[in-house]
Amino acid sequence: MYRRVVLLTLLGSLLGLVNTLPNKDDWDIYSFHINSTVTSRYATTTITSRVANRMNESKEIEFHVRIPKNAFIRKFRMFMDGEVYDGVVKAKEQAERQYTEAVSRGQSAGIVSSVGRTLEEFKTSVTVAPHKKVTFELTYEELLKRRLGKYELQIFARPMQPVKDFKVDVHINENAGLKLIEMKGGLSTKELANAITKTVTDKQAWIYFYPTVDQQKVCDSCSDNGLNGDLVIFYDVQRDVPFGDIQTGDGYFVHHFAPSDLPRISKNVVFVIDQSGSMHGRKMQQTRIALIHILSDLVEDDFFGLITFDSELFHWKQELVQATAKNIEEAKEFAEKIKDRGPTDINRAVLEGTRMLNAHPREDSASILILLTDGDPTSGETNPERIRTNVKKAIASKFPLYCLGFGFDVNFEILEKMSLDNDGLARRIYEDSDANLQLQGFYEEVATPLLKDVTMIYIGGSNLTQTNFSQYYNGSEIVVAGVITDNNIESFTPEVVALSRTTKITFSCPIATPESTATAPIDRIQRVWAYLTVKQLMKKELQLSGPEKEKVKKEAMDLSLKYSFVTPLTSMVVTKPPGEDSAVLNKPKEERPETDSIMRHGVTRKFLTYPTRQRTGFSGIYFHIHFFLENIFLSPAAPTQRFLLRPEKVALPLCFDLPTAIDVKLLHHPSRGLDIKGIIGTEENAGFTQLRIHVQSDIYIEVDTESISVKEGQNVTRYSEQTQITAGSVTVIMRDKEIDVSVGDIRFVILVHEISGRKFLWPVFRQMPLDDQAEGILVYNNGHYEEGENMGTTSSIKVQGKEIDAGRSSAVDYSLPVPVTVDCWLLSAQSVLQRPSTDFNN
Fold it and tell me: In the chain, count of helices (H) and strands (E)?
């Protein structure tokens, strides 16, 4: 039966040409939150959107999310009808089989990708019953890269309607100390600037963006349809120690190395510019503009060369010359006359640039070769592998090769491989009006070399990410992560050896042992290592062939699966209720936009995808996943706090979520006259901000992260230092990170955790007599659960004899002094508690 399609676009742009355009009265985005936490340059961002269907019939609603291209999606969840459905990361081949089978059965499934510059887009759809709700939640992670002296955190928003409860919360925590915080982007213009508040201390910053409904219509590119733009946060950190910032935790380390107070190394640079026929028109014009600007930025102690090529070579000068004012003006005149001509001989042009650099060796200088081209090799040597071999042999690891690919006709893969072969990188230049600025921006990143032949050494370290770098440029940063062998921090000795302008230089760790990051999430440093390792393994796999290629590919895929990263080697299968068809999320390759189709219930709907140009110059890569759910959906409140249960007859612990910012009944023990309540914090997995203990009729104890208040009768006493407290049958022992509480034969411990500078409480029962009348969230750890059929990512769990489907997920176990992340079977709170979770709210 045909169903009308309602399109909901969140943080993205309208791409599908569907039969019916959305009427904003049909649906309501009643809440939309972005929460981004950056700790030591590693950003974890969660986007939560709650949507209601206001109509009297079921509607399909789509969810769009734009994320940075360098990020890995870690988790996607939907809350529907009191149940939680998690995406599961699988090997791409396995996920593709599931996708293909769904299509062959005529079921709804689809993947569509298009091209973007800095962003990718995730899209999924769900059918919502009349007057019901659904909650979407997406989490992604990204290691922020330092460019031109700044880190950049980009948040994009385009909900297509004003949202009453719209919030963006950003928390930055840098132990090295903050040096700069500034905000740009379309969402910081006009009246929206008044919706931004900022609090900055020495090491932390909080940015809140809470626009009103009216304010959401008044940014540079906003309209009555609400927000449309990005909020970009730039920052840097203090660099008082040249060695940099090294952090350890859970047997792993991450080292950020970015010294700045070093003399500039003069450079030898050769520009190799494609002037083949395909560069005709705006490409050639923008190249000339950029090249003239770049030549103006050369410093007098630099030496440079300039070659243009098609099937022939054209030199400005046969050899490198000094960047004097006279030479620069003559080179600009040459650049202004560059015109497009014939076919493309990349091999000959790059080898000639290499010859010029090799023929002009200078001590205390750094050499750089920059190639700009927009096409395939079509003249001379055209075999990509022979070109790679020729170039690598000629350069012989003496200097880096940077390849700039103009547009989408270029063979970008060969550029990537040549750059990786020769310690450089490849970057695509997009055919936009600002292409000349893209070229200039890239040159500025490599314009000021400070070190060369950089070697990062870690005695007592293993499983290291890349440790050798041909050059280090001012405004950039080198990041290395690894494993501390046997977790022996005392034998771990890091140092950096490099060549500066005048001499060999060694950077040593200024303290006996690197700083531990106990306040950070327990697995963050390990995840940074995994993120870097996967990225670098995928680059390495691009260069290899045969068994070596397959070995590296498997290693990268295994890590992606272990850490639930959606990478080019893995896909996410969105799990749904029994009987529903599959949906698959891929991280797409960057390719030219084209016509795509989606199969829905045997009907193929074709539509166009294309890069949408924003005023900021950004465009998106689009993931589309479409599926239909017939269930009636009801959205629970979110964000949530996850709880763990450890029943004996279940291999994995169970877990369930409760909403935050509520007062929860933890224990009611009538025979002991004991009541314990806890207030859950307002953030995702924020723990308890306060515990309230009531004993008999006249003893009230309140515990927060800084103190304990005891009310006995009319007397109230507050304690904030380590001590022992006795009140009636209650004994409380305050310690630094732990509070012991005894009430007769009941004993529990309140752990005080601190993560990213935020403290919270977590109660753990050590001794509690069983009592059929006792109730509360914490009583259910002794419930009756059994595991049924286990299918890897799903399982049937018997709760009080009733069989319930569960999906595999993860949770942080805060019952330990040092929290750890564990796998668990995720059920709804109502399934575990066997009654509405609201019965446990106070």
Answer: 10, 52
